[in-house]
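## retry 2 of 3
previous attempt timed out at serialization; input unchanged, resubmitting
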Amino acid sequence: QVQLVESGGGSVPAGGSLRLSCVASGDSANRQCMAWFRQVPGRERQKVATIGFGSTTYADYAQGRFTISEDNAKNTVTLQMNNLTNEDTAVYYCAAARLGGACFARPQSQYAYWGQGTQVTVSS
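## retry succeeded, writing output
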């Protein structure tokens, strides 16, 4: 089992930055791939970025603005988000999976463990 707890959400003006953190506990073998997703009410959940097997991958809209990183000693995965826009407003979720690789290519259904989500609101 894996438990994930997100923090760091909040309200920021457009152009601002936020740093989301996800603290993980439980079997590390089930955390080979770590990911951030986001969801706006009424819309499908989107994959934002993944990290695993020494690789990071980003959605097109996140490339160049967001950075995913991990601190294995602290069992923490972080999403640094810069130059935020209104379209980044969403609930952000941390997820983990026991996968053989290609973390970003995997559908969200293969991510077995999820945090409770943290709200990010960007205002113009």
